Amino acid sequence: MSALTATRWVRWPEAHTLADGTESLPAGAARIGYGADYNPEQWPEEVWADDMRLMREAGVNIVSVGIFSWALLQPTIDSWDFGWLDRAIDLLHANGIAVDLATATASPPPWLTELHPEVLPVNRLGETIWPGGRQQWRPTSPVFRRYALALVEKMAMRYADHPALSMWHISNELGCHNVYDYSDDAAGAFRDWLQARYGSLVELNRAWGTAFWSQNYTTWHQILPPRLAATHPNPTQQLDFARFSSDALKDYLIAEREILRQVTPEVPITTNFMVMGETRGMDYADWAAEVDVVSNDHYLLVADPQAFEELSFSANLTGQIAGRAPWFLMEHSTSAVNWQPVNQAKTPGQLRRDSLTHLAHGADAICFFQWRQSLAGAEKFHSAMLPHAGEDSTVFRNVAGFGRELAALAEVAGSRTQQARIGILFDWDSWWASELDSHPTELLRYKAEAMAWYTAALANGLQADIVPARSVLAGHGLAGYDLVIAPMLYLVPQALADALTDYARTGGHLVVGVFSGIADADDHIHPGGYPGAFRELLGVRAEEFGGLLAGQTVRLTGELPAGSTGSLLTHDVTVQPDVEVLARFDDGPFPGVPAITSRMLPSLAGAAGRASFVATVLDPAALAALVGRFAAQAGIQSLLPEEVHGTVQLAVRQGDTQDYLFYINHSARAVTVALRPADGRLSALDLGGSTLAADTLTLPATGVAVLGRARTDL
Fold it and tell me: In the chain, how long is the greatest CA-to-CA distance?
């Protein structure tokens, strides 16, 4: 895996003789990880042999073990039982299946919460979150940490030399249910975090604007988490509590990691992120440096009409968080899940399409929750690789067939995702701050706006990277992008404003979306008019917001498709003489006012840059047209014919000598893609029902084809 330069990957076991007398693959052999969460403790041991047979039939080569097993591993405060786990791991190794071993700390056992109820989280109303579910622990509890880290050390010491141990899995979905804890433990840790951030109460009072509403603090002990208040809590207090809560979980992650590194320094460490849907409490761009391998869990939302686009967006973002190095899809579903109001089975071909979309965006392991579908418990209706119907089922046949496909695609492992020419910024601080209360509108949704721009790129047959704003602040986020879009970048510290301004003034095209540049890092308004941080660069100024009611739209006129509209929010924009007005509001709060502007900039590097502004939420057709216009100005062309734009996505991974092209049909109808001479000579690596001819590729409904092409840039 010479292409892997930014991460340590799974430590595959050395070659050994398997239970059936055959030899396992050598440790250095290329492979894509394939498997699931495996919970042998839920089943009688006589079932385990059948599990091994069927795992091998399905092509499973790695499983996550022990995730929710603390209560069985430590039945009482002073007793331990590792025998069942020893036997399970030995059996997996004998069958050539690597183990991603969890530290088992995700949910404490009943004896711990009975003995120490002070580890239980507290919500903002002051109510205790009681046992009975999972993750019933405070991230800042010193008592919980003492017991949990003792378990981690015990696990590390016991399994350090086991030949099946390929990766450590810290806890599970950290923060899924306990990211925000308002307990006294959290209050004390929050004060410590604030002291480290601000240094003095004078600076904290300045940052929080406590002169407002008589909130000036004179001792640290007066400061609390933003618990239930008579009216809206201080917005910077809320923002800092979101930052603190992400950091508190990250600190806990580091505490477990340090024990594992001390005992097993050669074993890679991961934890499963949840880059999906509206999960926003954890700043994963900040967490990524703390693990050896970035892992993610992703589930489709049945009610989301753009479920595929969201999957692609989240997989793309995960790959960018990983620095475009390979990452690990730890969980997704073979079919229905159990936790949505309505849970629907996946349609034919969807398991394959969803899995290969993650692979296209850089995943080098495709895993599911879980191996064998549970007969009891809250997730008994969650699909699995081996469903209630058993091996004689459509799901298992699909699972086994896909396992064979992944084995045939082994050469893709280790390749990196190709950088796009369009970058879309994504920023957790803006996500948190833009959706606080007391704003011009509560209808704007940060991720929805970011996804709208991504979908508009797909509608033009273009790939865009979802670029964490943290990478821009680190100084390596914008190189190579000809077009950078900042959707709803509400919170803009000066360093980020400077970096984006430099990008535009040195030849790039920066597009600033609605409700951007409004506040600084402390959520203080940039004075002088909106969009404050970008006002001078864009050559525009607004004094007022024009909020629109749900379902209300304003007509747009100008260089947009007929019937284009804006919604949710508008600005009363005025422009400097050198600013081109591309569209105006035709009605609404500010009729006749510029709605979309663009400004050529004198370049500092020999090529003219550009800065554009969009002062409303555009309808999908208008946004697609605008992205197409801006891409064309930047010389960015689609690699797909126009007739399949918005239906077929093309994602590319780059190996040492070959590109891997993933053509993904996310529609429910067959599509034919005309191939271009410029695409070069393409070889079929995995057609999966597609048909490759000399100059066309025909994809069935929800079909994916993986083609190879010799690299010409070497």
Answer: 80
Contact 13, 163 (CB under 8 A): yes
Q: Which CATH number fits domain 642-710: 3.30.565.10, 3.30.450.40, 2.60.40.1180, 3.40.640.10?
A: 2.60.40.1180
Averaged pLDDT score across all residues of the chain? 96
Give the long-range contacts of residues 339-346, CB within 8 A, separation 24 or more.
339/379, 339/382, 340/301, 340/302, 340/303, 341/303, 342/302, 342/303, 343/302, 343/381, 344/302, 345/383, 346/383
Answer whether 52's CB lies under 8 Å from 41's CB: no
Residue linked to tokens 């030399």: 161
Look up the pTM and report it.
Answer: 0.97
Angle at 544 between CA 543 and CA 549, to 5 degrees: 165
What is the per-residue pLDDT across 91-127, written as a single tens digit (0 to 9) for each?
999 999 999 999 999 999 999 999 999 999 999 999 9
Q: Using one digit for the tens of pLDDT, what is the confidence trace for 511-544?
A: 999 999 999 999 999 999 999 999 999 999 999 9
The residues near 141 (Cβ < 8 Å, ≥ 6 apart) are 118, 119, 183, 185
Please, where in the chain does CATH 3.40.50.880 lie?
422-633
What is the C-alpha separation between 578 and 602, in angstroms, rounded? 11
Report, as residue numbers or ranges, the catalytic residues. 173, 331
What gap in Å lies between CA 37 and CA 67, rounded to an integer? 8
For 209-262, how does the pLDDT look when each residue is reduced to its tens digit (9 = 90+)? 999 999 999 999 999 999 999 999 999 999 999 999 999 999 999 999 999 999
